[in-house]
Amino acid sequence: MKKLLALLLAVVLCLGLLAGCGEDPAPEGTGTPEGEEPSGDPVELTLWLPVYQFSDGGISDEDFWNGKLDAFEAEHNCVVNLEILSWTDYATVVYTGMLSDEGPDVCYVTETFDLIDAGLLAPLDEYITDEDRELYVFLDQGAYDADGNLCTWPMMAGNPCVIFYNMDMLEAAGITELPTTWDEFFDVCVALKEANPDVWPFIQSWGASNGVSALLASFWPFFFQAGGTVLDEEGNLNLDSEATLETLNFINKLKTEGIFDDSIVTMDDPNGKFVNGEAAIIINGTGNASTFTSEGVNWECSLGLEGSGGLATNFSVDSLAISNFCEDKALAAELIKYITSAECMDDYHEQIYGMPSLTTDATYTEPEPFQSMYTDDADKMHVVPSFEGSASFMDQFQQNVQGMLMGQLTPEQVIDETMTYYNEQIVA
């Protein structure tokens, strides 16, 4: 009896093997072929996005995305498990989640250095077509690994730091044209100071609560105008540079020539000074324009100034990324393209959170003069990339710049002391 059962089992196994002969392996990451009905169990992807619906009464992020994802799921025979995260400890939650294969397949990321350094993000280059590069405006502004592979796909890009001018104050000082270069800008500041000594001609936030905030509008715009690059070709911090020195010399000149006074090192509210008529010029994100208008400020703005490196400024980019644990990276890449397509983003910007359009076929809704900046000058807007210990570095840099503005350090010493701290305390 046992021999008979063994013989029957052998026959069954052989038939199974024969049935499998000649079949092609199942394609990886394809979803459903065009023109065919979905078959088999659907692939599952987990998607993590942060909350962006902050207004009362609007459609929730969860309802919006679940409605949009229905079409993608049907087309690709998949299920997208959406999780909307709060902003509390967001970067930590994402990093912890990415450490496990139980975490997200596709995730919205803000701080990328540790994720890339730990090998948690999948390179995206093989999923990018020539058509994608033509279609997506900010694609090159994603984060890269040490081998130069793109690891993030921009989703929320915008709010470049531009120069706002109180035109009533400029006209009272006899200034009829906005400056375009550093030298012209300095001359305008001098003229404003002479016309109204009680008003800040120009103000920066070197007293901000942290270095990231301080450098955002006070250092990076000038640094990029000086031709600076935050990282070198090997991905190492590149702040020990001529561009850094040129920028610090210009900022220091504003203090030594009386454009700034001693309180600049404690200044943490440039917007308030500008709104209250206590400052004639500030640099800040374009998102502040509506406040200035509602407060009755007669303002105009320019993207930036031309330094030795040309016209430039900085802006922010948050992105989508694929976990290296994701089992179907090709499908995950298709999900990213769908989320960032005009089909989704036009409605997202209208119903959830307004930001510049990501693709050339999208509906542009930014008011002028900002829309022209995004369409004509996207190549002049630069992201400050994530790098090892970036927050600690910027805190130390801010403190040393404060020392410079108080006459305790030279621009050269600011660079030397900050880089010594970075090399010995952060990357050692």
Characterization of the model:
By secondary structure, the chain is α/β, with parallel strands linked by helices. The chain has two domains: 176 residues, Periplasmic binding protein-like II (D-Maltodextrin-Binding Protein, domain 2), CATH 3.40.190; 193 residues, Periplasmic binding protein-like II (D-Maltodextrin-Binding Protein, domain 2). The protein contains 17 helices and twelve strands. The strands form four sheets. Strands 2-1-3-11-4 form a five-stranded mixed β-sheet. Strands 6-5-7 form a three-stranded antiparallel β-sheet. Strands 8-9 form a two-stranded antiparallel sheet. A hairpin with a 2-residue loop joins strand 8 and strand 9. The radius of gyration is 27 Å and the shape is globular. The N terminus is likely disordered.
Question: Which stretches are low in confidence, meaning pLDDT under 50 for 5 or more residues running?
Answer: 1-37
Treating each run of at least 4 consecutive H or I residues as one helix, how many helices?
A: 17
Report strand order across the widest sheet. 2-1-3-11-4
Helix content: 40-55%
Q: What is the CA-atom radius of gyration, in angstroms?
A: 27 Å
CATH superfamily of the largest domain: Periplasmic binding protein-like II
